[in-house]
Amino acid sequence: MEFRFETIEYEKTRPSLTLLPKHSGVYKIFDIHGKLIVLDKTSNLFDRFERYYGERSERVRDLDLREITGRIEYIKTDSTFETMYVLYRERKHHFPKTYRKMRTFRLFTLMKINRKQRFPRIYASRQIKTGVDYFGPFVSRSQFTKLKTTLERTFKLRPCLYNIRGNDPHPDCLYYQMHTCSRPCNNDIDRRNYLEDVGEAIAFTQGQDADIETSLVDKMNLLAAETKFEDAEFVHRRLDKVRRARAEYKDTFFSVWTFDYIALLASDSVSRCKLAFIRSGRILGFEQYEVAALNDLLGPDLHRFFDMPLAQDANETVYDEFCLVSNFIVDPLQSVELVPIRDLDMVPAQVVERLQIRKKKRSSRNQVVAG
Fold first, then answer.
1. Domains with residue ranges and CATH for the chain
2. Is the pTM of this model over 0.70?
3. pLDDT in tens, 297-349
4. DSSP for 21-42, written as a single string
5. What gap in Å lies between CA 156 and CA 201, rounded to an integer?
6. Following DSSP, what letter does each residue of 266-287 receive, concatenated?
């Protein structure tokens, strides 16, 4: 599905402005020299242009563009999600160096863990690089700091800023003296075991507590069977620590690289549905379907978007688009349902089921209004 702007040559067809739809959309206004002077969104295209080009009075303080406009371009959108995506894409195209300052949508802090480091630690980040793990979105720095502290205390990850390679103890370090980390600098733990702790911390971040508990219980039972009771007790204390940490910190977060979803968006008709395909945090495309033919048409598109090799796009694009989708998770601007991509063959049936539920809710609301 392509986003195509309708064009109006203002000087030649001034009356055609009255034909603008009373519909949400994104618009661009160019001056008589062809320079872009306005790029924005609106919930009603007709009303917005009426403010720019309608009858003027002393009470009207809006921008008067009647004498300098040469061309107008606009596109209708059916949902806030679609509007924000089109506006983001156009601002990035026309203003590649400054588009982020235009605050098209909220940008979030991410948690970064680079497992390429010998002994990884946790960072806050507002950018994405290939080959590094990122998790989010964090609505505030304090939310990130609380999770960082929880992970470091529960899984004994190092909070220090040293470049740890092993066999280089730092007795002047407070964490070293208090044994609040596993002290990889002192060779108290090797890289393999440290990375296992990092893996458990990542699982905790994503809410995979059952996997952590299963692994620890299996390890505890194995040690007990080998009559290594002290080691089994150590694992048991670790399990209790994970459970206490979850009781204190209940939020879970997405991994950017496994963020694969379909977003169910509003369409221009109840007989049609519009979907956005999201893979590894990126919005790969939008498609519109007749609901009656959805089961037959969606399957090939799913394989096209999720089976094909993913193009190596700019890392800032991944960050931008992950944040765009996240706006509808942490602060819903409009009802956007996300269907996770696990088994591609099951997704069409899941989407149809969601659409049927949405239709029933809409019918119930209409009956309440009518009553």
1. 6-76 (3.40.1440.10), 109-254 (no CATH), 259-370 (no CATH)
2. yes
3. 999 999 999 998 877 666 889 999 999 999 999 877 666 889 999 999 999 99
4. -SS-EEEEEEETTS-EEEEEEE
5. 10
6. --SSTTEEEEEEEETTEEEEEE
CA 112 to chain centre: 15
CA distance 192 to 53: 68
Contact 79, 274 (CB under 8 A): yes
Q: DSSP secondary structure string, 292-358?
A: GGHHHHHHHHHHHHHTSPPP---HHHHHHHHHHHHHHHHS-SS--EEEE-S-GGGHHHHHHHHHHHH
Give tens-digit pLDDT for 288-310. Answer: 999 889 988 999 999 999 998 87
254-255: strand order across its sheet: 122-125, 109-113, 133-138, 254-255
Task: Give residues with Cβ within 8 angstroms of 124, minimum separation 6.
Answer: 109, 110, 111, 112, 138, 141, 144, 148
Give the span between the Cα atoms of 364 and 206, in whole angstroms: 35
Q: At residue 141, what is the residue type?
A: R
Rounded Cα distance between 205 and 249, Å, is 10
